[in-house]
Amino acid sequence: xxxxxxxxFHGGERLAQHRAGVTAEADRLAGMLxxxxxxxxxxxxxxxxxxxxxxxxxxxGLLWTSPISGPRGFxxxxxxxxxxxxxxxxxxxxxxLRDGQALGVLFVDFARxxxxxxxxxISNADAGGIDIAVEQAFGNCPRHIVPxxxxxxxSRNDARDHSRHRRLAPEHLALIAAAHTFIxxxxxxxxxxxxxxxxxxxxxxxxxxxxxxxxxxxxNNLFNSIGNIVTHPSTSLLFVDFQQQASxxxxxxxxxxxxxxxxxENDEETGRRVRVVPAAIVHSRRF
Length: 287
Prior knowledge:
CATH superfamily: Electron Transport, Fmn-binding Protein, Chain A
Low-confidence stretches: none
Region (Disordered): 1-20
Organism: Pseudonocardia sulfidoxydans NBRC 16205
Mean pLDDT: 88
Protein name: Pyridoxamine 5'-phosphate oxidase putative domain-containing protein
């Protein structure tokens, strides 16, 4: 999957906006998606970050979302370029990235409740880090960002146990049930990969058998993630247990339900749900 820059909404985003009745609202915000460089304000924000989330395909074509961390300043960006001075940990599904590959990057400042999405194409990936040619950079509202006190301290050279699974196990479901945040990865065949954030009260992500689902809350009305899923069902989820320094990565197939009547607490009654059937699972823990 490679990325082709385009300033307009794609068909999946337009369909989702129409189904939600927010086409006019989306049009008013469309300008924020046309920034194809890192501004001075974004550059200052990046200089303070110690954690990034990346979404891309592994060598077998499965979509994954992975954490990358480093000391403050390990992410630098200005103009058309972003540099992550590090990479996914050894054994991570995205350990081996390639030049020309589409990558979606998300930065979340949980303390200040700010987030920045940067999408682009890898211009160079090696032991020194990942260089990305920026095609899209924009901030998101702070809605549903839950502050946290623990930091993620994983790094590329950490000794970690990566266990692979095909189905969700009880220990995976326990991590999911306790989560008030997860990172969502989606992709579009022509627009590339995208990484976004989902948050809610613990338990907002539910499951039926081996299928996960969650209510789609009111957001910025752009429907970037849902629009991608409508067009291209490859979906990835990342749950991080900051306290235990563990992560759960899921690569699967997503689908959107549009007219769901829910009487469950905190569902916001938008009528939308996203469902994901896992195809592959990686549970990582520090030794």
